Amino acid sequence: MQDTFTDREQLYQMILDTQREGVNVIDINGNIIYANKSSAIYAHADQEGMIGKHITEYYPRAVLLQVLKSKGPVRDFKTVHDDGRTFIVNAFPLFSAGNFAGGVATFRDITEIEELSRQLETLEMELAFSQVEDVFENFVGKGDSLEGVLEKAQRCIAAIGGPRHSVITGETGTGKTMLAKAMYYFAVKNGIVRPNAPFIEVNCGQFTNADIAAMEIFGTDKGAFTGAAEKPGLVELANGGVLFLDEAHSLVQHQTMLLKLIESGMVRRIGGRKDREVELIVIAASSKNLKKEFVPELYQRLAQYQIELPPLAKRSLGEKQALFDHFVIQYCERVRIRQNLILNVRFTEQSKEIILNAHYERNVRQFRDVINASIDAAAPLVNKLSRQLSEINVVVHPNNIPVTIIDEEPVKASQVDGMIQELAEKGFGARKIATKLQSMGYAIEYYHVAYKLKRLRNSG
Ligand SMILES: Nc1ncnc2c1ncn2[C@@H]1O[C@H](COP(=O)(O)OP(=O)(O)O)[C@@H](O)[C@H]1O
Ligand SMILES: [Mg+2]
Prior knowledge:
Layout: H1 8-18, E1 22-27, E2 32-35, H2 37-42, H3 47-50, H4 64-70, E3 74-80, E4 86-96, E5 99-109, H5 111-131, H6 147-158, E6 166-169, H7 176-189, E7 199-203, H8 210-218, E8 219-220, E9 231-232, H9 234-237, E10 242-246, H10 255-264, E11 266-268, E12 275-277, E13 281-286, H11 290-293, H12 296-302, E14 305-308, H13 317-339, E15 342-347, H14 349-357, H15 363-378, E16 391-396, H16 410-425, H17 430-439, H18 446-459
Parallel strand pairs: 6-13, 6-14, 7-10, 10-13, 15-16
Antiparallel strand pairs: 1-2, 1-5, 3-4, 4-5, 8-9, 11-12
Helix pairs in contact: 5-7, 6-7, 10-12, 13-15, 16-18, 17-18
């Protein structure tokens, strides 16, 4: 057979461009030599235009930067892109005639898988709650920063005057969903709602527009629009149980309907004429200050109990220690169930210190993920385990900690930003600024400075 692809390079490019995985190749200075089509799509960039630019212009937290430093591979590394999507990256050094020549990375968008794992997290939470006597027992910090919070949560559900609606605020990953779930189980276990009462969770931020949100939440009747079906909304499905409105600030356009529901216990489907009675406990959660987002009447009715979850940074070192131990035990427990293996984990002093003192923008969730990833990195893979073993010891060292998923400390970061700006105003270029900051003891690379300068210019 004749090979019609005489141009091999073109053939390889075509193959690479058909892959769903992104591919980036850089030289020793971090400049892009090649990026495939998927990579350009992920970066919202023009594929040709990426060539010759520094990788950080498109991937500010590129794992390839680690390869440039270590000249070694990085495998199965989870990283969060600036737009919030999560990637799994494999990156390797490249050599030409025996000399280090750059690196190649392949990466996959796992945002949807992450969403599934979030749902799994909820199921795991449910399982944990259904098995314990005291649903608040699972909360680390129950005798500490969460003491008042948990007491309020119980009173809100079990007040003898009847359960109340509530508002839970707190940054992402501080435990809002966990608390709402616990309140529901608390209501079930105390006979405040029936044993199989619904817990309906609505992520109000997920709807592409307000009309769709309203139809999902309040339901539709035949008169809503031509061809509209008669469909109960989530409010009706939650009848007799708990309606958990997550990211409730996204509902600003439906405040009147929400107010009516809460005031009168009545709901009218979109396009309908009939009011239907529902009885439910509304828990509204938000990472924003709902008092500022909602009209006062609505806020007042909803926030009969205002529960505020503190960010991780505000919790005591002792509590962080307890959370740390909790997540390590949880990891070992999973290994015991999955592998029938006793896992003993020890963190070196230094690695524990790094983890406890880092700043976590995504709070408890990120703290947990960092601990899990560190143990992952220190432990042998499943296929490397000997069958005879019934117990293994793992020591976590600082190099096992996935540094790029720990955020820069905000204070230090803004200090550095300030200095960069100052030096840039004096006419210094990125390289000079980097050298200067390095001489002052800051671990900052040229490309970080270049990236920050670019951002400063764009914002100013
Ligand atoms: N006080 C706590 N004790 C134990 N685990 C916690 C605590 N707070 C949060 N978590 C865990 O952290 C993760 C994120 O919590 P979640 O309730 O989903 O946060 P949010 O809804 O505020 O984003 C969950 O896996 C949860 O079980
Ligand atoms: Mg949540």
